[in-house]
Amino acid sequence: MTNTILIGQLAKASSCKVQTIRYYEQIGLLPKPLRSAGNQRVYLPDHLDRLVFIRHCRALGFSLDQIRKLLHLAGDSKKSCSEVDEIAQVHLVEVEEKIKNLEGLRKELKRIINGCKVDRVDQCKILKALGDHGQCLAKEHGVEEV
């Protein structure tokens, strides 16, 4: 097989961990590779291109579901890119909301830290504020519950 890539080479070329490559295969983002006579995964340059695309999308914060949709759309060259635009616009709104929440967190943390100028832990206003959400100015910090 010419122009084939083994999983370690694919991982290095894409700056992606081997486990992540296997995971992307498992969830269908990356097509299953061919297998060698020794049952090793054998990838093609298209796998690398797709993996680089996925990694760049992840670096920009796109969800796996959004990436799945983008890959599907990218596979149909005749399709209008309006759906791609919509996915990117929705993601931008999500990013802007996260930034807004992070700015609120920064402001609240600065307020709590600046309000604590004591020497002993039993008087620490940071610990008191962390233990009593009622001491926070913002009742919502934009943090999802787990």
Unreliable runs: none
H/E series? EHHEEHHHH
CATH architecture of the largest domain: Orthogonal Bundle
How many domains? The number is 2
Cα shape: elongated
Rg for CA atoms = 23 Å
Q: CA-to-CA gap between the ends?
A: 48 Å
Strand order of the largest sheet: 1-3-2
Question: CATH top level of the largest domain?
Answer: Mainly Alpha
Bin the helical content.
Answer: 55-70%
Structural class: mainly alpha
Report on the structure:
With 146 residues, the protein is mainly alpha-helical. It folds into 2 domains: 5-74, Orthogonal Bundle (Multidrug-efflux Transporter Regulator, Chain: A, Domain 2), CATH 1.10.1660.10; 82-135. The protein has 6 helices and 3 strands; from the N terminus they run βααββαααα. The protein has helices at residues 7-14, 18-26, 45-59, 64-74, 82-114, 125-131; strands at 5-6, 34-35, 41-43. A 3-stranded antiparallel β-sheet has the order 1-3-2. A hairpin with a 5-residue loop joins strand 2 and strand 3 (41-43). The radius of gyration is 23 Å and the shape is elongated. The model has no long low-confidence stretch (mean pLDDT 90).
